[in-house]
Amino acid sequence: MLRGGCAARWAAALLAAAFAATACGDSTNSPSDAADDGAGDGSTDARPDGMPDADCTDGSAGLVIQCPEDIDLGCVPAAGAPAEFAAAASSCGDPSPDVVCTPAAGASFAPGDTTVECVATASSGESASCEFTVHAVRDGGFDLVCTPGVTTACAGPATAVDVPAPTIDERCGTAVGAVMSDAPAGGVPGGTTTVTFSASGEAGFSTTCTTMVTVTDGAPPVLTCPPSVIAVRTDPAADAPAPVLEAADACQGVVPATASPATLPRGTYPVEYTATDASGNDATCTTTATVLDAFAPGWPRVASARLGSDGTTSIVVAWEPSTGADVQGYRVDRAAAPDGPWTALGLVDGATLVFTDPALPGTVAWYRVVALAGDLDGGATTPVRALSIAAAQYDLRGQSVPTVPFSTTLYGVVRHPVDWGLGPYPPVILLHGNHGNCRPTRTIGDDDCAETTDHDCHRAGYTTTPNAEGMAYLAETLAAHGYVATTISANALNCRDDYIPERVELILEHLRRWRDWSSVGGAPFGATFVGHVDMEHVGLVGHSRGGEAVALAPARLAATPIAGVAIGSVWSTAPTDYHGGSPSAVPYAVLVPGCDGDVPLGHGIAIYDRSLLPAGQPHSQVFFVAANHNYFSTEWRYDDNLLSLTCWSWDEIGARAQRGMLEATLAAWFDGTLAPGGELEPFLRADGETPLGIEAWANSDLDLRWSHAASVRTAIDDFSGAGAPAVNLLGRPNTFSGYSTSRSCSQNGCDTSFDHPHDAMFLSWDGGTPVASWDLGGLDATGAAGFSFRMVSRRSTLNDGIVEQLFLVRLVDGDGTTVEFPLTDVRRVPHLYTSNDVKEMLQTVRVPLPALAAFTPGFDLGGLGRFELEMTAAGHTRGSVLVTDLELAGN
Amino acid sequence: MVALVIAGLALRCRIDGEDGSRESVADPTAANTPPAPAMATRGTATAPPTAAAMARGTTTGPGTATHPTTATPSASGTVAPATPGTPAGITTLPPPAVTILGLDVHPIDATGGEDGRGNRVPAVRPVALDVRAEAWGGRALDPVLEVGDLRFHHYSHPEIGVLRYVAADLEALPAGAPVSVRWRGDGRDRIPVVQALQVAP
Predict the structure, then answer these.
(1) Is A647's pLDDT higher than 80?
(2) What is the pLDDT of residues A753-780, one digit of tens each?
(3) What is the per-residue pLDDT for B2?
(4) Which of A8, A275, A574, A724 has its CA 20 to 30 A from that of A405?
(5) What tens-digit pLDDT sequence spans chain B (201 residues)?
């Protein structure tokens, strides 16, 4: 093959050489190039001396080389035999270029075919090359000579072809046995197929040759488009592939058709399909393709689990709705493994977001939810795991608990996964609050108080109040998530003055027992739990006084360590706050019910606010509007918000909603803080709306107002600094212009409704264009997940008529690039809530920095200049808020 | 029966001069209470319940929400929305009422007691102040006995229906003072016990 751009005139050499190459740069040639001189006239030229004739008219060196024809050495020994040959070369400026052949002339050539490459190099440095073959047959061997090619027309997907047998040249030896062929036994498919023949001789000799069999197809495939086709788009970030069509081909059978366009967004479009067979015959047709959006539903969760009296585990799966506009329903599938195979459990309509599997088969099941567009499958959720659960119990009498001045009972109601092979599982201890421990046998009446030193009520006319069992529903849901959950009794500590420190000791005593049961075993469980409980990651859950006790427990455990036991996460529901606990050293969350008729809202708030420093662990607070105190226990049967003490009774959200919210949220909290590799869901860190799946299970719209402090955070301002409010914690200036009031304050110094033991910035405006600005001094926010602050709409007539605060949030980087957006783009800050005892509850507003930077070209997270709130830009000419806890936050 | 005293349902107090604006504290019952027709849709009660009505248990719980329902599979594998699975323990029992039966003041054998001013002190003429009721349920907050200006915080339940405080000195108790029990610091849940303390010499 001629390579290069210059012309070369080829001559018919007088020597045996039949082909040559010229050099324009480097070039090579092959026998197929031999007959043409490159001038386009099909002629060849030669010099009078027989050397190849170089074209010296174009100014190039014109280096040409000619190889000899292929050489047949005939029969040779196994070690080979020498061959003599010479390649001829000439050049315009160098009549005798150097020629080197590899292998060189005179070298020994082994039996078989050896390619010899010769390279000519002119004095100018240019080179040209050519090749030829030296053939030899081993003494005693032979040659197979195949027909080069056979062509026939197809007679179907496989065509019977009579491929000629090769001839045998036995000049050096004879063949032994039959000649073998690898021709397809069932016929040859369309296109070109190489058939190889092989034969063996004496002394291990064997050789092969090939025939190219071409089966031709002269007819195009038959492609028929239906009037219309439908495709489903499962990913909002990508178009859907056009539906697949196939053509029928007489030679190939099925030929897939390609669509143009190949991918489509939602809508209806003409699509052309083309099918091309192996012989290059094609067919086309056009149809109308409709693309439906049925994206995968979001975030499947085990919202609830129940252990039936027959030992079965029922599972409630909840999920987030698909955002696909064409979703008409969902199918819930179940499998024994996360990769299937899947069994359809049932179909629900597009408005349904929960599904109950009444009996989980086996010890573990995986669920997924598939979006449906009509009867077509759309996207599917990632699988979510649910574990079958079992019950255990202990009731140890006459036990000693530090600081408790009497022998008492260690009583626990245990729910645990059945399958120990998937553990070890973190343990969770749940502790109820102060409540009557004697339940009257008459049908009406709340539980009554009687001092007892053990678990039981010993009064005639009463039974023992099952306070521990009141939290069993939480234990069951947690167990299905993979925790060994124990709800313990403090009946002996109830109805006593305070006894909250003693509750802490009770928790630790249970942990000591669990440490033993999980390591060496012992009565009453023997070895049941040995090796199956991860005591290095203990979760604690408490309600009411129990909620305060669990908040105090980490510090108490640190003061009185239990070898092998570490608290990994704590949740308090409606806690009291008599003892000033500050669970800053562990992941901590507190639920504050908005209609708590028993514990003033300030108790839970105070624990959260105290827990913020020092930083290092994630902390969350959720203010649950319309929830009362008692209904988080299934055994606290009466509404503590008696006679609308705190809220109008008819505004309460009810027991089902409270418990549905708590069990799903609590499980999400522990999955994010206690489970290996866990990460908090966005809603738990004030970075997303309440999951609709949780609301569906709670059967209510939940008004949850979250505060969150990330484990990794950079404090910008909490108005506690010496220069507050003029100077922030970064040592940079703040300005508050255009406000009728702008002052830093704390607790009642802010106003009587601000129950936080915390500093804040009081901002009121009544006309003008008030702007609050925090100088950030080039703060590096690279790697931060969010810029967050806490805010509350004050109980003020300046806020009359509004349902939520609306203003602009602005971030400016070092070179003045600005991102600005309405507050409601990231978080709604509603104005107060329905209550007879309104307190101003701070909630977190979190601005997602990576998303902001991604959508704002040029915005530099590496150097933030300032943060601003502009109050009236969104249309509110009057208003009043409290702001605090500005910080850069990780996840 | 002594009904609970509900106070301050309609707070409205101006903060004059706080910031020179027209600002005052908003009335939550005015600003946040839904109009009556809306209330009627939340349950069967059509007006705020009276204490008597609540005590008799004539109201129902929260109204039915309109959210999606839970579904359970049928034998055929296709399911229709069904009644939600109900978490255990939901009850429509009537709310309890604390029925005060009386106050007994009697000598007790004790080495110490409260002085009513926040201190535990050695006993002088210790007496038990037993507030008798049909029953005392446990609550998150500790009950506080108010005797005139004195406050007693440390209590016990020697038997069902008795809430006992120990005063260190009978002579220090203000005869004729009103006696009540409350839990919250703001006194919103205060229960009168007797209008005038009777102290036998």
Answers:
(1) yes
(2) 999 999 999 999 999 899 999 999 999 9
(3) 28
(4) A574
(5) 223 222 322 222 223 233 434 466 654 444 333 322 222 222 222 222 223 222 222 222 222 333 333 344 333 333 333 233 334 444 444 445 688 999 999 999 999 999 999 999 999 999 999 999 988 989 999 999 999 999 999 999 998 899 999 999 999 999 999 999 999 888 888 999 999 999 876
Put simply, whether A652 touches B (Cβ < 8 Å) is yes
pLDDT for A47: 55
Mean pLDDT over all residues of chain A? 91
Residue spans per domain, chain A: 19-138, 143-216, 228-293, 298-386, 389-709, 713-889
The domain A228-293 is placed in CATH, from the list 2.40.170, 3.40.50, 2.60.40, 3.40.390, at 2.60.40
In this complex, the residue of B9, B15, B87 whose CB is nearest that of residue A660 is B87
Of A599, A651, A700, the CB nearest to B67: A700
**Cα–Cα distance, A208 to A194 (Å, whole number):** 12
CATH of A713-889, one of 2.60.120.430, 3.10.129.10, 3.40.109.30, 1.10.10.60: 2.60.120.430
pLDDT > 90: percent of chain A: 79
Give CATH for domain A298-386.
2.60.40.10
User: Which residue, among A71, A74, A70, A60, has the nearest Cα to A34 in the 3D structure?
Assistant: A70
Contact between residue A342 and residue A367 where contact means Cβ atoms under 8 Å apart: no
Q: A69 in contact with B at a CB cutoff of 8 Å?
A: no
* Spatial separation of the C-alpha atoms in residues A781 and A812, rounded to whole Å: 12
- Pairwise CA distance, residues A482 & A147, whole Å: 71
Name the CATH code of domain A19-138 (choices 3.40.720, 2.60.40, 1.10.10, 1.10.8). 2.60.40
Q: What is the ipTM of this complex?
A: 0.71
Is B140's CB within 8 Å of A544's CB? yes
User: Would you call B94 and A497 a contact, using CB atoms and an 8 Å cutoff?
Assistant: no
Q: Closest chain A residue to B88 measured between Cα atoms?
A: A634
3-state helix vs strand vs coil in chain A, percent to 5 = 15, 40, 45
Q: Give me the residues of A, 296-335, that contact B with CB < 8 A.
A: 304, 306, 314, 316
Mean pLDDT for A861-887 is 92
For A473-493, letters b (16+ CB in 10 Å) and e give bbbbbbbbbbbbbbbbbbbbb
Could you tell me how far CA A439 lies from the centroid of its own chain? 50
Question: Does A699 sit within 8 Å of B140, measured CB to CB?
Answer: no
- Coil, helix or strand at residue B96: coil
**Which residue among A348, A436, A797 sits closest to B23, beta carbon to beta carbon?**
A797
**Are the beta carbons of A306 and B8 separated by less than 8 Å?**
no
Which residue ranges make up each domain of chain B?
Answer: 22-62, 100-194
Please give the CATH superfamily to which domain A389-709 belongs: Alpha/Beta hydrolase fold, catalytic domain (3.40.50.1820)
Residue A176 and residue A165 in contact, taking contact as beta carbons nearer than 8 Å: no
pLDDT at A443: 66
Question: How far is CA A119 from each of CA A37, A90, A101, A467, A851, rounded to the nearest angstrom?
Answer: 20, 12, 6, 98, 63
* Nearest one of A667, A764, A628, A797 to A304, comparing CA atoms: A667
Is A41 or A181 the better-scoring residue by pLDDT? A181
Fold of B100-194: Immunoglobulin-like (2.60.40)
Residue A90 has pLDDT above 90, yes or no: no
The answer to whether the CB of A426 falls within 8 A of the CB of A537 is: yes
When pLDDT is averaged across residues A248-265 and rounded to a whole number, the result is 92
Q: Give the A window 726-765 contacts with B, CB below 8 Å.
A: 740-741, 751-753, 764
Residue A466 sits at the vertex; the CA angle it makes with A460 and A468, to the nearest 5 degrees, is 145
Domain A143-216 has CATH 2.60.40.10: yes
CB A312 within 8 A of CB A359: yes
